[in-house]
């Protein structure tokens, strides 16, 4: 591909719908909140020139120069950062596409359609282009994520999305997609979320949707299954879903949705027994089969509770309370919402409750585009409203590991990055933290922007480390933008994040039993009902606390030490017998292994004094490929076993190098071979090409982190040079 962009899944350009003029797209960023605009005139284009970053995002020629050939690790790291720094956005952060999941655009497009919101031509064209480009090259379907096999969920949702945006049912690509969909059994074999969205659209009937009773939100807090105990993403999706479900709101039938009934469902629509199809699901979609218990609960809800027992005042009260919670979520995030699933659903809830002219619905409509992103294939929907804080915090640390924080050429770049982190620290609690079940957040960082405003354990940690790295830099070259009290606020948040196990989860300590997984009704995802301990998140917190201690040793010293030692016990206990750790947010063992070994290094455990570190190193050394690199596929995440990738991956190779360096692994030659591979894959202008997808969530869905191909090679090269010197490797 061009410009570090992945090979398109489909390169058959003749079949693409239409094209916009890529030179007219601009990314507007307001304190990190991104909106892509399509400029209408040459005049406007002249006033607002296209930036290098915008060109790079869309796979256009950036014109960035060839750099002096790198022979040593530090030269390679600097070339990499030189290129990467050209992609920094004016607010000081880095942006990127954050695609992968293939179930997000349809929710947005269905929401636009049923609320009769006009879709700009430019957007409709590029969304269609993206979806066509991501169609499975052999069977014409779509999977749960861009690398996945075709499923009912992916195929039925994206097919619908294309039709709503004007794609023709006779288009050969659509015909092929339909064949695959029918082979998989059609829409009635879809998972819960597909059945829900298609019922909203009026293509299926609500009887096919497993019950989402809003009255669950009326349960007292002590009840073990009360929604406040669920993983935040599940409860925040369930919230508007239960509202819409309870209202049984669906779009009136029209010609297009009548046609969709015939296209998506092989059976004659009029004769379908929808109730009987609530639990039919294709094997491709059934990653987490529903338990017997859950099916029994659904049966009781659908046949007894809702039709016969539930008093109507209770339905009313539940809807009112759910609406109150939705409105608080909207208020607290300034309509950005927690994520790309509840965003469109909250929009629809506001439309249903308050109508098309309400300020609330209108504000949603103007905020939703913050999820959209342009790449070389077209327009996608990001998995969050961006990766701003996360990538920026890592970029600072990688630059530091490569000695670039002392390089006067990069001080302005990094100072800007620091000011971005300062701006993005969450300043205060929400207005009703207890009633909305929010975790303490004052002083924390989230993953994307402070407007979204959800504290994450590891994002707070990386943010804090990024700030400390620069503010305590021995050169004194960086201003103190975040005063000590605010650093202490961040520590206070981190200290709330530990589970009794010693481990840390993502947004909150775990609030419910893992047995809640018996009620996991989404079918397509695993481990979603509650928070779990993650070696990645735990390590980020441990290393942040560790770093902070040397900066402000008196602050909550005993709390911090106790936290660290419990966390380290968790890291030790979660190692598998083969020496590895399972990763939940990056693929997979390579990702978690790097974190775990960083934790252990923090505790003074290295190859020469720790059997478990030796086991971890050999787990990796045994898997080094002939070219010096490492590669595992996303199947590792699904299966829980190492699945070898046929090709080594730059990002994963960098993770393993970091792991081995943290461990002080004595096989330095293995590390050098890996670094040579990383250096050979670097292009003359300093960049690396996009390879396989890097990230994951919920075991089954992959997600892209395109900036990792800069951040981690730079970090690995820099760490090596610091330990073993900067001799030429090439
Ligand atoms: C993310 C992205 C970042 C990620 C890390 C910080 C890397 C991780 O260490 C902690 C968890 C977190 C914050 C995370 C949680 C789940 C997210 C938000 C995502 C993987 C990005 C997309 C995903 C979200 C759930 C997607 C919407 C899908 C649903 C099933 C609701």
TrEMBL record:
Keyword Amino-acid biosynthesis applies: no
A cellular component term, taken from the record's GO annotations: lipid droplet
GO molecular function terms attached to this record: lanosterol synthase activity
Domain Squalene cyclase C-terminal: 389-721
GO biological process terms on file: ergosterol biosynthetic process; triterpenoid biosynthetic process
Alphabetical list of PROSITE patterns matching this protein: TERPENE_SYNTHASES
EC number: 5.4.99.-
Segments traversing the membrane: none
CDD domains recorded: SQCY_1
Cross-referenced PANTHER family: LANOSTEROL SYNTHASE (PTHR11764:SF20), TERPENE CYCLASE/MUTASE FAMILY MEMBER (PTHR11764)
Listed name of the protein: Terpene cyclase/mutase family member
Organism: Sporormia fimetaria CBS 119925
Higher taxonomy: Eukaryota, Fungi, Dikarya, Ascomycota, Pezizomycotina
């Amino acid at each position: 591909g061009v410009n570090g962009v992945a090979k398109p899944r489909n390169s058959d350009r003749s079949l693409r719908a239409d094209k916009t003029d890529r030179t007219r797209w601009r990314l507007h960023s307001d304190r990190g909140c991104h909106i892509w605009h399509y400029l209408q005139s040459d005049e406007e284009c002249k006033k607002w020139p296209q930036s290098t970053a915008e060109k790079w995002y869309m796979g256009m020629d950036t014109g960035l120069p060839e750099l002096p050939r790198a022979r040593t690790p530090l030269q390679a790291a600097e070339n990499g950062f030189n290129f990467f720094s050209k992609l920094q956005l004016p607010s000081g952060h880095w942006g990127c596409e954050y695609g992968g999941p293939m179930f997000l655009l349809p929710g947005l497009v269905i929401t636009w359609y049923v609320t009769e919101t006009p879709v700009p031509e430019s957007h409709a064209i590029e969304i269609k282009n993206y979806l066509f480009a991501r169609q499975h090259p052999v069977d014409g379907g779509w999977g749960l994520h861009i690398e996945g096999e075709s499923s009912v969920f992916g195929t039925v949702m994206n097919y619908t999305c294309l039709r709503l945006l004007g794609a023709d049912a006779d288009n050969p690509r659509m015909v092929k997609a339909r064949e695959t969909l029918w082979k998989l059994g059609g829409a009635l074999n879809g998972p819960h979320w597909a059945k829900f969205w298609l019922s909203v659209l009026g293509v299926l009937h609500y009887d096919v949707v497993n019950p989402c009773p809003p009255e669950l939100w009326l349960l007292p807090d002590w009840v073990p299954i009360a929604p406040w105990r669920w993983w935040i993403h599940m409860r925040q999706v369930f919230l508007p879903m239960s509202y819409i479900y309870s209202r049984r709101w669906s779009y009136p039938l029209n010609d297009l949705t009548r046609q969709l009934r015939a296209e998506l469902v092989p059976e004659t629509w009029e004769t379908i027994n929808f109730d009987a199809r609530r639990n039919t699901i294709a094997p491709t979609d059934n990653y987490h089969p529903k338990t017997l218990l859950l099916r029994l609960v659904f049966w009781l809800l659908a046949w007894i509770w809702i039709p016969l027992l539930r008093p109507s005042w209770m339905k009313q009260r539940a809807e009112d309370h759910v609406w109150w919670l939705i409105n608080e979520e909207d208020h607290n995030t300034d309509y950005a919402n927690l994520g790309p699933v509840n965003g469109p659903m909250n929009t629809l809830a506001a439309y249903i409750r308050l109508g098309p002219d309400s300020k609330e619905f209108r504000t949603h409509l103007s905020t939703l585009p913050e999820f959209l992103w342009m790449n070389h294939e077209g327009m996608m929907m990001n998995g969050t409203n961006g990766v701003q804080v996360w990538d920026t915090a890592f970029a600072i640390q990688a630059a530091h590991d490569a000695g670039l924080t002392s390089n006067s050429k990069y001080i302005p770049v990094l100072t800007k990055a620091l000011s971005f982190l300062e701006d993005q620290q969450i300043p205060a609690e929400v207005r009703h933290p207890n009633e909305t079940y929010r975790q303490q957040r004052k002083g924390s960082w989230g993953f994307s922007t402070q407007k979204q405003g959800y504290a994450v354990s590891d994002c707070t940690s990386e943010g804090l480390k990024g700030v400390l790295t620069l503010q305590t830099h021995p050169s004194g070259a960086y201003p103190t933008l975040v005063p000590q009290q605010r650093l202490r606020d961040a520590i206070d948040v981190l200290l709330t994040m530990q589970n009794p196990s010693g481990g840390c989860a993502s947004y909150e300590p775990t609030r419910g039993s893992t047995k809640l997984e018996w009620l996991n009704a989404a079918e397509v995802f695993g481990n979603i009902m509650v928070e779990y301990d993650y070696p990645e998140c735990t390590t980020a917190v441990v290393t942040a606390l560790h770093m902070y201690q040397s900066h402000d040793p008196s602050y909550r010293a005993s709390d911090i030490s106790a936290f660290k030692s419990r966390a380290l016990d968790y890291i030790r206990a979660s190692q598998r017998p083969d020496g590895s750790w399972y990763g939940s947010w990056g693929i997979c063992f390579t990702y978690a292994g790097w974190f775990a070994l960083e934790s252990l290094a923090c505790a003074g455990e290295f190859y020469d004094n720790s059997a478990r570190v030796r086991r971890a190193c050999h787990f990796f050394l045994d898997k080094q490929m002939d070219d010096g690199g490492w590669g595992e596929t996303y199947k590792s995440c699904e299966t829980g076993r190492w699945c070898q990738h046929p090709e080594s991956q730059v990002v994963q190779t960098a993770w393993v190098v970091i792991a081995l360096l943290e461990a002080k692994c004595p096989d330095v030659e293995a590390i050098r071979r890996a670094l040579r591979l990383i250096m050979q894959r670097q292009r003359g202008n300093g960049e690396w090409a996009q390879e396989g997808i890097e990230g994951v969530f919920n075991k089954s869905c992959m997600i892209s982190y395109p900036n990792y191909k800069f951040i981690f090679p730079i970090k690995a090269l820099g760490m090596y040079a610091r330990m073993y010197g900067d001799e030429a490797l090439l």
